[in-house]
Amino acid sequence: MNPRFFVGSLPIEGDLILAPMRGYSDLPYRSICRTMGSAMSYAPFIGATEILTKDHEACLALGYLPEERPVVFQIYDDNEERLLAAARQIQRYNPDVIDINMGCSIRGISGRGAGAGLLRDVDKVGKIIKRLTSRLNVPISAKIRLGWTLQSKNYRDIARMIEDQGGAFIAVHARTRDQGYQGDADWDAIAEIKATVRFPVIGNGDVKCVEDIDQISTYTGCDAIMIGRAAIGNPWIFERRNRKDVPLEEVASILHLHLDRMIDFYGLNWGMLRFRKHLAAYLKPMKLPKCTRDALLTCSNRSHLNALLQNIGLKTPEGITAS
Question: Known catalytic residue: 104?
Answer without folding.
Answer: yes
